[in-house]
Amino acid sequence: MPNSVVVTTVAVKSVKQNYTPSEQMLDLLNDFRLMVNDCIRIGLKENVTSLKSLSLKAYHQLSNYQVPSYYRLCAISAAVGVLKNYRKASRKKSDVKTPYARRLMLTTCYGFKIKDGKQLRLSVRPHRYEYIQLNQHTKDVLSAEPGLTVRSVCLTTSTLSISYSKQIDAIEKPAGLLGIDRNLDNITVATSSGEDIRFDLSKATEIKAKYRDVKSHFTRSDARIRHKIFGKYGEKQRNKVNQIIHNVTKQVVKKAKKEKLGIAMEKIKGIRKLYRKGNGQGNRYRGRINGWSYCEIQRQVEYKARWEGIPVVYVDAWGTSSRCSICGCKTYSNEHRQLYCPKCNISVDRDVNAARNILARGGLRFGPDWRPIEAMVSVKR
Ligand SMILES: [Zn+2]
Asked: How far is the CA of 323 from the centre of ligand 1 (A)?
């Protein structure tokens, strides 16, 4: 059994709650937005996008704002993000709109303090403080583990998110791997020790189908009303579906943590291109496939895994669903989602086969001397 190599790094997570801003806070948010817009203007005029050069150009010009000076730095750094995105977008397209921050918001890593784990103290003007009560969920999250450090806060007119971090001992070479294959109705997990687990997600697909149906019966032609109502349904649907995905990804990461396994998933870049108009699929099928939360699953698995120090690798998805995971031969589809390999003379479940392929490809990432606990090839069903 290989020894797992451990490296110390920092993992970041965040927690979000609603709050009602006071008059002074709204003033501060507005000043912050104006400062960001000033910085964007200066950055565009002087053609700078790096944090250092924008600080040199913009810092003193922001001195007429009556805010603690560290908010100037935060505004500059927020503007740098906007300018970088703008530059990137305008390289691709010629008619990109000049950026401008419309929303009231504040992102800061200075000027706040969590008092007794109960409330957030924020300085709104030099030597003037405002308080936001933390709700039970936020308090629980921040006190759940020892050694958490609060890094930054982000305020909008209705939400407060607090980003926090901890030092983790990241495993560089895990003792085994866990491959995840995502399908429409389930995700299938295969581990180095030869275990297969299927997590049912048909509930999420049902919810999506229901909302799609509701939306398709909406016939009023007023675009504004439609936009509003669809937005509302979209949010409800997202909340329900994300809850289901959250439960599943939690279980997957828990398993990986318990058995000290790394996680391998497919690279999903370009997956949407496979299912769009003109590719010979039906409307309904495309709708189902494109409505599926590929990204959300991966995003959740990845950040939860990182928090536990579990390494995540992405592998090429090519052929994972059609090649035999034991010999690599082309397989034939049987009934009931089974695949038949003529060389090995066996039938395997296609999802399990795909998960094992992903697992095997992931193993190659840890170098030639890396071996999982047991050879996966000996597992036959
Ligand atoms: Zn085979």
From this structure: 8
CA 311, 314, 320, 321 torsion-angle sign: positive
Write out pLDDT tens, residues 188-229: 999 988 899 999 988 888 888 888 788 777 777 777 887 887
> What per-residue confidence (pLDDT) applies to 120?
95
Q: Which of 116, 119, 122, 115 is nearest to 134 (CA)?
A: 119
* Domains with residue ranges and CATH for the chain: 9-168 (no CATH), 174-378 (3.30.420)
The alpha carbon of 333 and the centre of ligand 1 are apart by a number of angstroms equal to 13
Instruction: Name which residue leads in pLDDT, 221 or 341.
Output: 341
C-beta neighbour count of 89 within 10 angstroms: 12
- Copy the structure tokens of residue 287: 């709708």
Residue 370 pLDDT level (bands cut at 50, 70, 90): low
Contact 119, 160 (CB under 8 A): no
At residue 381 the predicted structure's pLDDT band, cuts being 50, 70 and 90, is very low
DSSP one-letter code for 95: -
CB-based burial, 137-159: b 16+ in 10 Å, e otherwise: ebbebbeeeeeeebebbbbbeee
Cα angle value 297/301/307 (rounded, 5°): 150
**175 CA to middle of ligand 1, Å?**
26
What is the 379 CA–ligand 1 centroid distance (Å)? 12
Terminal CA-CA length for the chain:
24
Antiparallel, parallel or unpaired: β 149-155 and 6-18: unpaired
Q: In the prediction, which pLDDT does 377 show?
A: 43
